[in-house]
Specification:
Layout (H helix, E strand, L loop, with lengths): L1 E4 L4 E2 H18 L7 E6 L2 E2 L10 H13 L5 E7 L11 E4 L3 H7 L4 H6 L3 H8 L2 E2 L10 E7 L3
Helix pairs in contact: 1-2, 2-5
Protein name: Hydroxypyruvate reductase
GO cellular component, one term: cytoplasm
InterPro entries: GK-like_C_sf, MOFRL, MOFRL_protein
Length: 151
């Protein structure tokens, strides 16, 4: 496990691109048969609203991460808000895997378009990978977990 910090800040899509780059580098360095590696980070990322969609920073992080990873095999991720509400919806966040972009295309969704419209919640609702917990009555931090299997 590698902890990237508990106070990461910045634009969700930029943090996602940085973590995707790190995950791909770490995966390339892992020997076949090595144990999986988990990247953990916390902190409040933000979204600059550009479109008319619905989403929060954790779902937007996952959407941007899926695009940056482009279906890379063996990398999965989850991003959620500990209070159970990501942005303006009753969604805590989302999860992605190597098939996320493929599943979206099959459902008629463009990840690029969804990101441009800030519609991460619509995107993940369409493919069934939203995390919906309901209010947790706590708000410790947002968190992100990126699981990397060796290739």
């Amino acid at each position: 496990m590698r902890i990237l910090g508990d106070a990461l800040e910045g634009e969700a899509r930029e943090v996602a691109r940085a973590q995707a780059s790190l995950a791909l580098r770490l995966q390339a360095d892992r020997a076949p048969g090595a144990a999986p590696l988990l990247l953990l980070s916390g902190g409040e990322v933000t979204v600059t609203r550009r479109g008319d969609g619905i989403g929060g920073p954790n779902a937007e992080f996952c959407l941007a991460l899926a695009l940056a990873l482009d279906g890379a095999p063996g990398i999965h991720a989850l991003a959620c808000d500990t209070d159970g509400v990501d942005g303006a919806a009753e969604v805590a966040g989302a999860w992605i895997g190597p098939g996320t972009l493929r599943d979206a295309r099959r459902s008629g969704w463009s990840a690029e378009d969804a990101l441009a419209r800030n519609d991460a919640h619509g995107f993940f609702a369409a493919i069934g990978t939203q995390v919906v917990t309901g209010p947790t009555l706590t708000n410790v931090n947002d968190f992100r977990a990126v699981l990397i299997f060796p290739r």
